[in-house]
Amino acid sequence: MNTALGAFHFLRPWWLLLLLPAPFLWWQLRNRTDATTRWASVIDPAILRALTIGGEKPSRLSPHDLLFAAWIIGTLAVAGPTWKRELSPFADARPPVVAIIRVAPSMKAEDLPPSRLERAVQKLTDLVTTREGASTGLIAYSGSVHLVLPPTPDKDVVITMAQALSPEIMPREGDNLVEALRLASRVLRDGGKGGSLLVMTDTVAPDQVTLLRTARNDIPFEVALWAALPPARLDAAQDLHSAASSIDASLEAMTPDRTDVDAIAGELDRASTTSDVAGEGERWQEAGYWLTPLIALLSLAWFRRGWVIGA
């Protein structure tokens, strides 16, 4: 409760200036429509009391009183009272991810039918479908590193570009995972929304494992390593285990079912987000609409016979 009171404020405080003329207008309207007050200047007070019906009764709630109350409540509602924050509708529901796929001749091996590369693309398709609405980027690497697609929420574009990847289109063979991770980190950093990196590969060269140990500071985002190998072969893949250990990455095998997809999706959804971009992240929650039913209730009084505001 104390936290809510401390955070309470108005989103549009200048509207509160409308409260200043409200008491004066209420007093003016009440006096101008009071018949007793108007006749007091021309009729003797004793005679006026005798001619006034119900003048000794305490005045009941008048239309002017309800108008004054509606004015106050309406002004408070328009000023936008708030005391808690909510996610902006322009913010991503899930943090972005950059998928880094090794596109090399070894990825054409068919021990993971139809091939390691095609299975990796199929798994990526399942992943972006599961994370509907989340932004996904795509980087292809072998001996060279290429940004195929910056993060986008359009899963169809991501899937189409991933399906077009082939070792034949890569200009140089080899393994340059470290530079791929650095490029992906720059992409996420420039995006300003946080996120994580997903590496899909079947092997990591020994020199890259060594470089990963010294390049961890250049990769400030969480990394998940998805091994494009049959699950039974993952335990023996010491290069993948060493690479994952070097950058504190999780390591997941590609399974015949969806358990790996669900595990990876859950890990990516837990990645940290930032709100450095204007219009992104959190905003103060508008609470003025909670006063609308009260205004509507007050307006019902004007449906009563004889309830008018005279001049």
UniProtKB/TrEMBL annotation:
InterPro entries xrefs: UPF0353/GerABKA_families, VWF_A, vWFA_dom_sf
Parts of the chain that traverse the membrane: 12-29, 66-83
Protein name: VWA domain-containing protein
Gene3D superfamilies for this protein: von Willebrand factor, type A domain (3.40.50.410)
SUPFAM superfamilies: vWA-like
Pfam name, any one: VWA_2
Key word Transmembrane present: yes
Boundaries of every VWFA domain copy: 105-202
This protein's UniProt keywords: Membrane, Transmembrane, Transmembrane helix
Tree of life domain: Bacteria
